[in-house]
Write a structure and sequence with these properties.
The complex is a heterodimer of chains A (361) and B (296). Chain A contains nine helices and 20 strands. Chain A has 361 residues and is α+β, with helices and mostly antiparallel strands. In chain A, a hairpin with a 5-residue loop joins strand 12 and strand 13. In chain A, helix 2 runs parallel beside helix 4. The longest helix of chain A has 18 residues. The radius of gyration of chain B is 26 Å and the shape is flat. Classes of the chains: A alpha+beta (361), B mainly alpha (296). Chains A and B meet through strand 6, helix 2 and helix 4 of A and helix 8 and helix 9 of B.
Chain lengths: 361, 296
């Protein structure tokens, strides 16, 4: 089902300002849409509005073209997985999964088939008659998914479902969830603060901050063309290096670190209007090339090394004490306190207007 | 050899006893035994006296013991004991049911809904709790005469039920609200998405989880009328309408009608309904059902 948010806003009772406002968003049928953002950005509020658990202050919510603002949650054709799983503790796993169908007065045989089908898919058949308190966290997670699955709802909502799992299990469940999404053939809306989850699972990411949409698009777009400085800083680990500076005679002059960069020709054309103005330049850690070049070179001292195996992160210091992160293959030999030359890969440079923080190139 | 070794192992989690601690521990035990004695000795006297045929009008400690059921016989044949039992049980059951019903609604509402005057009314309930129910005695008389003028069948006993239930609702609302507060509201949300209305959320999801607390509330409201002497002694005038507390009291107040061993026998029998209810609710009273609802 296609989900559309038209100029949606939410103001809580007793609050002075809108928590989120002017949200316009189209989520296509069968999209796996991840709503991403730091805590307190309003992403859960947005999901709860879609679910109908929180009222919509202004704007319209459309499911398949139909206005849903005042429709009860149970009539919205949605299923939801909660962060705490919210399993009913007094019911067995089977009863938990059957509950929504029972409330809809489905036939017993239909309920049984659907529950078994979901249990089969999620590999929880052995625990069907256990209480939630008797099974492990990962199994509870699966039950929560199963409970949402049996509904065969048009929209599948998930509110940070993986945040209570340990790292290994989370990695595993990410892939499971994508597989599940494909097999369910529904629209999924997934809320998280974890950019890895967003990057790995989404077909479409919505990045929220301070109650506003910062960027919408597929994961690669976020990594390669962040729309503004916030997105650039939020997506990617390690965080993108940002240098403040200005454009003089077609060259980027760093203000504090004292280096000069000559951008590639296409960027230069776009940077022309910013001649003499303040500009921020971003570069991801892997776009530094080791060694001296005839231009765009920086000379830094290695401060801390984080060895990750296939690569190593060098936390370097410029002579004036400013830091930057450079990643190099793990087999290169570096030692702390050594001084090295690196040059910028001009294809990997991001330019932002320092005033509006919007992307230039 | 290996057995000896095992004996030598110190397996307790607590540090070993030093002489000073041993003395302190002994004193603690002596105090505890003394405390137990204070509670158990009178109870034991009640049990012994009620079966002792040698006891006359007054209970004598010591003396000859002769097993007999004559005090029980007296209780059933010469007094309105059965009436009192039925009265008390009816009042107690009605009080417990009324309290449970209302507290379910109020506790759930105060925990889950935000409405105007929520805090103020909670405070008001709390403050009113501090006023003893007995203070309202004049008001009770007036209210009863007003209500019985409108509804002719409204008896003093019914009014007693309302007083007990009314008092119980206020205090228990707090207890149940606190208990429901500790249940994640995501459970409500999940139930709502699964297709429950407000009442269904309470009946199908919340109520089964708070069952241990409801059982405690039911038990307390049930015991209340068994223990209370003051209210029924003032409100009820006909001995046939008396509750157990007021009824049995007539056996030890007047020299002309003094039967202390019979009083003891009645007291012993009074405990039976409460014990039955306690055993019936024991399973419900065991808490910990809510664990596993959310992450763990």
């Amino acid at each position: 089902m296609k989900v559309q948010l038209v100029n949606i806003g939410k103001k809580y009772e007793g609050r002075e300002n809108f928590t989120i406002r002017h949200i316009d968003l189209d989520i296509d049928d069968k999209d796996f849409c991840v709503i991403l953002g730091p805590s307190g950005c309003g992403k859960s509020t947005l999901l709860r509005m879609i679910a109908g658990l929180t009222s919509i202050t202004e704007g319209d919510l459309l499911f398949g073209g139909k206005r849903m603002n005042s429709v009860e949650p149970k009539d919205r054709d949605i299923a939801m997985v909660f962060q705490s799983y919210a399993l009913y503790p007094h019911m067995t796993v089977y009863e938990n999964m059957a509950f929504s169908l029972k409330m809809r007065k489905e036939r017993k045989s239909v309920i049984h088939d659907r529950v078994l089908e979901a249990a089969e898919l999620l590999q929880i058949k052995e625990y069907l008659y256990s209480k939630p308190s008797e099974i492990s966290g990962g199994q509870r997670q699966r039950v929560a998914l199963g409970r949402a699955m049996v509904r065969k709802a048009g929209v599948f909502l998930m509110d940070e479902p993986l945040s209570n799992l340990d790292a290994k299990l989370r990695e595993h469940m990410r892939i499971e969830l994508v597989r599940l999404h494909k097999s369910l053939d529904t629209t999924s809306i997934y809320v998280t603060h974890d950019q890895t989850e967003a990057m790995t699972m989404a077909t479409k990411i919505v990045l929220l901050d301070k109650g506003k949409i910062q960027q919408v698009g597929p994961p690669t777009l976020f990594y390669e063309k962040p729309a503004n400085l916030f997105v650039a800083g939020f997506i990617g680990s390690p965080t993108m290096n940002i240098f403040q500076g200005e454009i003089k005679d077609g060259l980027f002059h760093s203000t504090e670190e004292d280096f000069v960069v000559e951008p590639k020709a296409e960027d230069l054309a776009l940077l022309k209007p910013f001649e003499g103005k303040k500009v921020a330049m971003g570069i991801r850690s892997e776009r530094f090339i080791a060694g001296l070049a005839d231009k765009n070179t920086v000379h830094v001292k290695v401060d801390v090394i984080e060895m990750l195996g296939k690569e190593q992160l060098l936390y370097c210091k410029f002579p004036n004490g400013k830091e930057c992160v450079i990643s190099e293959p793990g087999y290169f030999e570096y030692a702390v306190d050594e001084e090295h030359n690196f040059h910028f890969d001009v294809d990997g440079l991001h330019f932002f207007d320092a005033e509006t923080t919007e992307r230039i190139n | 050899m290996s057995k000896n070794k095992e004996k030598g192992l110190y397996l307790s989690d607590r540090p070993p006893l030093t002489p000073v601690k041993a003395v302190l521990l002994t004193i603690s035990y002596i105090l505890l035994f003394f405390y137990v004695f204070i509670i158990v000795w009178p109870l034991a006297q009640i049990v012994f006296s009620s079966f002792n045929g040698n006891q006359g009008e007054y209970i004598h400690v010591g003396g000859a013991y002769q097993f007999s059921l004559k005090h029980f016989k007296y209780l059933f044949q010469e007094t309105y004991f059965l009436n009192w039992v039925i009265n008390t049980i009816v009042i107690a059951v009605a009080t417990a049911l009324l309290t449970l019903l209302f507290v379910s609604f109020t506790g759930y509402a105060y925990s889950r809904y935000r409405f105007k005057g929520r805090k103020a009314s909670l405070m008001a309930i709390m403050l009113i709790q501090t006023i003893p129910a007995f203070v309202g005695i004049a008001a009770y008389y007036t209210m009863h005469s007003i209500i019985s003028a409108v509804i002719p069948g409204f008896t003093r006993q019914m009014f007693l039920i309302l007083i007990y239930a009314g008092g119980g609702i206020a205090g228990n609302t707090f207890i149940l609200k606190g208990y429901i507060d500790s249940i994640s509201s995501e459970l409500d949300d999940a139930a709502r998405i699964d297709g429950c209305g407000n009442l269904q959320v309470y009946r199908l999801i919340i109520m089964p989880i708070v069952r241990p607390m409801l059982a405690i509330i039911a038990l307390w409201s049930f015991i209340g009328p068994f223990l209370d002497y003051l209210m029924p002694s003032i409100l009820l005038s006909d001995p046939k309408q008396y509750t157990l507390a007021t009824g049995l009291y007539t056996l030890i107040t007047d020299v002309r009608n003094m039967h202390q061993p019979v009083f003891a026998a009645g007291g012993l029998l009074t405990a039976i309904p409460i014990i039955i209810l306690f055993i019936a609710l024991q399973k419900q009273l065991v808490s910990g059902l809510a664990s596993g609802a959310v992450k763990g």
